[in-house]
Automatic annotation (TrEMBL), chain A:
Belongs to the binding-protein-dependent transport system permease family. MalFG subfamily. Residues 72-265 form the ABC transmembrane type-1 domain. The chain crosses the membrane at residues 12-34, 72-96, 108-128, 140-159, 188-209, 244-265. It comes from Vreelandella aquamarina. This is Carbohydrate ABC transporter membrane protein 2, CUT1 family. It is found in: Cell membrane. One of its GO terms (biological process) is transmembrane transport.
TrEMBL record, chain B:
It comes from Vreelandella aquamarina. Keywords: Cell membrane, Membrane, Transmembrane, Transmembrane helix, Transport. This is Carbohydrate ABC transporter membrane protein 1, CUT1 family. Residues 1-29 are annotated as: Disordered. Belongs to the binding-protein-dependent transport system permease family.
Length: 280, 330
């Protein structure tokens, strides 16, 4: 074997080793959470890469807590409502921003970009007041309202970039036929926008599902919480005896739907993320 | 980005078509109708954003000049700049005189700079790997996306468990390998807790940076690489001379997105180390004052300062990178 061949083989081995490292780094924490969640509590504190004995006690325990089941239910309601509202307001706004030239358009875009950079904590006290005034404190509806602050700007931004890419001719034909803007949106653009809406909807869903700060601040009782807060507040008697088994089981339960979504829709998610940032 | 130039550009084809005065009139009528519809369509979004962003932000500014408390927001008195800085009985009070606030500012800046730098370096490496053609690339890309999709709370808990001082796998492995003799209290010690936080954040956000860089890499022209290969230039040299300059715009976008995100960090720090001052970020500080100490005025002052810092960073970035972000450009 000459040195050139050797170098080539070494390069291939190095390349695959790097891929292996990346794979392990990305997946291992989740894998470790899964194996921790199926360990019986007596085995919990033995470090091992494969559980020697396993059962589903931790899952049985978290699902027997009505507050956790309730939190999952709340999370589902909140995430779906947020997606629906963001898409509804986003598609009309993106038509205006992507297809019509008017004075003040760049100002509106700048405002949207500005809102998406808001630190959530900067509106915390003001939003708290609004939510209380609307009588939505300690109510998932208050979360649905407050989540529009981060899902709406993003949705509008991405949908606008997609809207812009559609050919002019489509709309010109509709205008020539005398179609009103509303008819143009619903009959011409909506059918073409489904892929973009699926992408942004997916990203909005993940953002709403994962949100923590507002959910922690605007809800008070166990029955009104969403899953991230429920998991963060799962605790034992003291900081030193956290119930790691149930915490990991709950973590796996809320993460599995997301992991499945990511694996199925990875292409869409990638295109949505990059459209939001690169084109921005 | 003057909107008037867009106007004429956009109208050119329509104007050319409207040969007769009657048709031209119809054209402007359609235009006016479209602009009216545009504002009508924007209205719901603008109202929603005013309700959840604009108005609350103004109220936060206002509340920062009052002594409002969480239990009774209505009974607030204006107290001027007392929440920010006041000299009383020979001592300074207010957020700006609070060493814990300055500690949290330092923590946030340190966290942001270190974690974003690490994310950029590792993100570029992962992107370069994913840009190569190999069997199973789709699987690797899906795997890399997983940390991004996992809720921050969950990743913080997962890492808290792996970093557990007595039973955590990380201490176990480090001791087996012989790097450390005694277990490290990752999340509790003042020395290591910031590194634990950075570790989790880096793990979670490498995918985001990697995907943005990957998108930029895939748009690069193939021919200059072929030319470089023919000339026998070393790949590392090609990366620094050709690839890096070409992906810099995308990298800058990723950096600004990540920096703005990191400056407002809350979840990961709150869950991993709760209110410990050695890792407390500005957001954690503000929320603690607002909610736990019920001092809405003081907390709002801290929130306002955080907002100003982030706004300043954004303006500075827009000023420096004006050419890269072209709003409304086609």
């Amino acid at each position: 074997m000459n040195s050139r061949q050797f170098a080539k083989i070494a390069k291939r081995v190095g390349f695959w080793a790097l891929i292996a490292v990346i794979m392990v780094y990305a997946v291992f924490p989740f894998y470790y959470a899964v194996i921790t969640s199926v360990k019986p509590s007596s085995d919990l504190f033995r470090v091992e890469l494969w559980p020697s004995t396993w059962n589903l006690d931790n899952y049985a325990q978290i699902f027997s807590q009505s507050s956790f089941v309730r939190a999952i239910f709340n999370s589902i309601i909140v995430a779906f409502s947020v997606v629906f509202i963001a898409l509804l307001l986003g598609i009309t706004a993106s038509y205006a921003l992507g297809r019509v030239r008017f004075r003040g358009r760049s100002t509106v875009l700048l405002v949207i970009l500005g809102v998406s950079m808001f630190p959530q904590v900067a509106v915390l006290s003001g939003l708290f007041e609004v939510i209380r005034a609307l009588n939505l404190y300690n109510n998932p509806a208050g979360l649905i309202l407050s989540y529009t602050i981060f899902t709406l700007p993003f949705t509008v931004w991405v949908l606008t970039t997609f809207m812009k890419q559609l050919p002019m001719e489509l709309e010109e034909a509709a205008i020539m036929d005398g179609a009103t803007p509303w008819v143009t949106i619903t009959k011409v653009f909506l059918p073409l926008m489904w892929p973009a809406m699926a992408t942004t909807g997916l990203l909005a869903f993940i953002a709403a599902w994962n949100e923590f700060l507002f959910a922690l601040t605007f809800t008070l009782t166990d029955t009104q919480r969403t899953v991230p807060v429920a998991i963060a507040l799962l605790s034992g008697g003291s900081a030193y005896e956290l119930p790691w088994g149930p915490i990991m089981a709950a973590s796996v339960v809320v993460t599995v739907p997301l992991v499945i979504l990511v694996i199925i829709f990875q292409r869409r998610i990638v295109s949505g993320l990059t459209a939001g940032a690169v084109k921005g | 980005m003057s909107s008037s130039s867009h106007h004429s550009h956009q109208n050119a084809p329509l104007g050319a078509r409207s040969a007769t005065p009657a048709r031209r009139q119809r054209g402007t009528k359609v235009r006016r109708q479209r602009v009216k519809a545009a504002w009508l369509f924007l209205a719901p979004m603008l109202i929603a954003l005013t309700l959840v962003a604009g108005w609350p932000l103004l109220r936060t500014f206002f509340l920062s000049f009052t002594d409002a408390s969480l239990s009774d927001l209505g009974a607030a008195n204006l107290i001027g700049f007392e929440n920010y800085l006041v000299y009383d009985n020979g001592r300074w009070f207010g957020v700006l005189a609070d060493p814990v606030w300055w500690q949290s500012v330092w923590n946030t800046v340190y966290f942001s700079v270190v974690s974003v730098s690490l994310e950029v370096v590792f993100g570029v490496i992962v992107a370069l790997i994913l840009n190569a053609e190999f069997k199973g690339r789709v699987i690797v890309r899906a795997a890399v996306l997983i940390p991004w999709a996992i809720p921050t709370i969950v990743s913080a808990q997962m890492w808290a468990w792996m970093l557990n001082d007595q039973f955590g796998i990380i201490n176990h492995l480090l001791m087996v390998v012989g790097i450390i003799d005694n277990p490290i209290a990752w999340t509790a010690s003042a020395t290591y807790s910031m590194w634990a936080v950075i570790m989790v954040d880096v793990w979670k956000t490498i995918p985001f940076v990697a995907l943005l860089v990957l998108a930029a890499l895939q748009m690069l022209p193939k021919d200059c690489y072929e030319a470089a290969e023919v000339d026998g230039i070393h790949p590392v040299r090609v990366f620094f001379k050709v690839t890096l300059p070409l992906i810099t715009p995308a990298l800058m976008v990723a950096v600004i997105f990540r920096l703005l995100d990191a400056l407002r960090v809350f979840d990961v720090i709150y869950v991993l180390t709760s209110n410990s001052t050695s890792t407390m970020s500005m957001s954690v500080y503000a929320r603690q004052q607002l909610v736990e100490f019920q001092d809405v005025g003081y907390g709002s002052a801290a929130s306002t300062l955080l907002f100003l810092i982030i706004a300043l960073a954004t303006v500075a970035y827009l000023y420096i990178g004006r050419k890269q972000i072209q709003l409304g450009g086609d």
